Description:
Helix content: 25-40%
Strand content: 15-25%
Order of helices and strands: HEHEHEEEEEEHHEHHEE
Structural class: alpha+beta
Distance between the termini: 56 Å
Strand order of the largest sheet: 1-2-5-4
CATH architecture of the largest domain: 2-Layer Sandwich
CATH class of the largest domain: Alpha Beta
Number of strands: 11
Shape: elongated
Number of domains: 2
Number of helices: 7
Low-confidence stretches: 1-5, 222-241
Radius of gyration: 21 Å
Amino acid sequence: MQEAILSNSGLKSLVRIGEGYHLEFKQRVSSPMRLAREAIAFANTWGGTILIGVGDDGALLGVKDVGEELYDLERALTSFSVPAISYSCRTVTVGTRREVLVIEIPESKNKPHFLRNNGSESHEAFIRVEDQTVAASPELVALMVSEGDHNGARFEFGDKELMLLRFLEEYHRVTVAQYARLADIPVADASAVLVLLTRANILRIQPSAKEDVFVFRYHEENPDPPPAERAFPRNGGDKYT
């Protein structure tokens, strides 16, 4: 849907912020599927703004055919996202017959959104990490699915869970693969435990473009936690705990 025109000064203020967690520049809608990825990432994270008609360097290039861009935009956000994404659109005139589209994507109440590929749901979700759109981990998808569950998380502490807590006390962070190796359990079981403890507000997930990490909630203010990799050397050396 299209809303009132935004001021030129307001647009310039947005551009000066630069691309990041909440802002993405696009010269045009060259691919509805690629645009859908960006929009899904914003909807699955904290919301954001997509500027269509702005170069990667922040140049206000504008688009000539607003109608064509709006058609591709609508197709991207309704046909390529499952479920469809809510959005609002404003236009800013930046030159003779040139306009920039300002697409506002709110944080969704219907997470997670998945990318539909070739007419079928691909079950691939995306999130925003700094100025990048990255694939959401299975753990993050599970946490998004559980956001609507108000029954709370129930669990019992066993030896494997206590081993995890002792590890976090010393190293402050852990990945799914590290916990699976530490406890000698399948990766799927390690994932389930970490998701459950995150739902119980004992842990917090830190999404990453490479590999998500889990930390104690009360350690999240620590400015420089020791790397957990010390316990699991990448060169194949012996692990120690």
